[in-house]
Design brief:
Number of strands: 7
Strand content: 5-15%
Distance between the termini: 88 Å
Strand order of the largest sheet: 2-1-3-4
Structural class: alpha/beta
Number of helices: 10
Order of helices and strands: HEHEHEHEHHEHEHEHH
């Protein structure tokens, strides 16, 4: 009796062997695919909302938007929004309303603790649907001292001073001022950081609500044998107080800190710092 053999293809390959080979490859491939985990979709990061004070000076809004653009350039893909406490559009409540019920970290473009960080901003956040957390104000921080140093250098502060010139020089750190004692504490800390950078005394002074006033601080330094006094503008953006302080400078005066690269890095640092902590949200 003659044994039967599996049919062959025209090329002479046994068809059952080919099918067996294909089935084996398919089974092994399917087994390997089962071992591959499906890609994990990471949740979108909370939006970053810059909270500016607002000013009638049109340069202020332009400066804040330039700072917003710099932050976006440093962190592509991060939603960066802007809201003002008063005077300028968009106002913070409108910005938060547009976010719906998403998560957001509010980063105040303020340089110290005070009424705005304790009352105004949390109050606005409490009425929003967005799930918000409030970052600390920008100051005090060494990056602010870096910014102030660079702005003074741009205004003419010499990179190298001989000792007689150094002994005759000083800086007034001109700030807006607040009745909150924590605000003065924060400003004094920034003054110390800047003094360490410059190697000369740095005295805080204020445009309103706190003492000493800028002219008083300038006269006090001159009486101490330091008539060569520079004004360091401790303001995020141009405005009435910054202009008022600049007009009282006996020597050089720096521009507001504005869209300096260190300011953008500090904003992202406050954002990341807030995300990493487990503090209570600014609104439920």
């Amino acid at each position: 009796m003659t044994a039967s053999h599996p049919p062959r293809s025209e090329s002479g390959i046994r068809l059952d062997s080919t099918a067996h080979l294909v089935n084996g490859i398919g089974s092994r491939l399917a087994g390997r695919l089962r071992l591959v985990s499906p890609p994990v979709r990471r949740p979108a990061p909370p939006a970053l909302v810059l909270v500016a004070h607002g000013s009638r000076d049109p340069r202020a809004a332009a400066t804040v938007r330039a700072l917003q653009d710099r932050v976006r350039a440093l962190r592509p893909g991060l939603p960066v929004h802007l809201g003002h406490i008063e005077l300028n559009e968009p106002l913070l409540p409108g910005t938060l309303a547009a976010l719906g019920d998403t998560e957001a970290v509010l980063v105040p473009l303020l340089l110290s603790r005070g009424y705005h960080t304790r009352q105004d901003i949390p109050g606005m956040a409490a009425t929003a649907r967005a799930h918000t957390r409030l970052a600390a104000p920008l100051g005090p921080h060494p990056l602010l001292a870096d910014t102030l140093y660079d702005r003074l250098a741009e205004a003419g502060w010499p990179a190298d001073m001989d000792e007689p010139t150094r002994r005759a020089s000083a800086v007034v750190l001109a700030a807006a001022g607040s009745r909150d004692p924590d605000s003065a504490t924060d400003t004094r800390r920034t003054a110390r950081l800047l003094a360490d950078r410059l190697g000369v005394p740095v005295v805080p002074a204020y445009a309103s609500a706190a003492a000493p006033a800028v002219p008083t601080a300038v006269r006090a330094l001159a009486a101490r044998g330091r008539p060569r006094v520079a004004i360091a503008s401790y303001f995020t953006a141009p405005g009435r107080f910054a202009t008022q302080c600049a007009e009282q400078a006996p020597w050089i005066v720096s521009a507001p800190m504005g869209a300096h690269p260190a300011m953008a890095r500090l904003i992202l640092h406050r954002y990341d710092q807030t995300r990493a902590t487990r503090e209570e949200p600014a609104s439920a």
